[in-house]
Amino acid sequence: MSDLVKFVQDEFVTRKDFPEFSAGDTITVYYEIKEGSKTRTQFFKGVVLQRKGSGSSETFTIRKMSGTIGVERIFPVNLPALQKVEVNKRGKVRRARIYYFRGLTGKKARIKEVRR
Questions:
Q1: Which key words are in the record (predicted)?
Q2: Measured between alpha carbons, how far is 96 from 102 in angstroms, rounded to an integer?
Q3: Span 82-107, pLDDT tens digits
């Protein structure tokens, strides 16, 4: 049964073409916000902590610092409000999920950049 559900999701859910990114990369996500009858585009720039799931139910988590407070946001890949994703920097990390990044502050919270 789960194979059938996965097949239907993969066939009929439209996939958006975003650049390849993984944990440790710094990305900017542009998404649409509806306020009453108006819509506007807002962006969220931060470090990718993880990518989770597969197919149409895939999500990714981004963390940014807003002043001295860390803010995390989870985006589904197939969110209709997502407009585009830009990869600003490629980070060199050894793990697929960098939860340890939450506890780092100051200079320790830097990720080495990969030159490609």
A1: Ribonucleoprotein, Ribosomal protein
A2: 15
A3: 999 999 999 999 999 999 999 988 89
**Distance (Å, whole) CA 98 – CA 74:** 14
Q: In what order do the strands lie in the sheet with 26-35?
A: 69-76, 59-66, 38-52, 26-35, 82-89
Each residue of 56-67: pLDDT tens digit?
Answer: 788 999 999 998
pLDDT at residue 5 tops 80: no
Task: Say if CB 29 and CB 61 are below 8 A apart.
Answer: no
Distance between CA atoms of 55 and 9, rounded to whole angstroms? 8
Which candidate, 89, 67, 106, places its Cα nearest to that of 23? 89
Q: Quick one: which of 75, 77, 83 has its CA closest to 15?
A: 77
Instruction: Give the model's confidence band at 14: pLDDT under 50 very low, under 70 low, under 90 confident, else very high.
Output: low
106: tokens are 């100051």
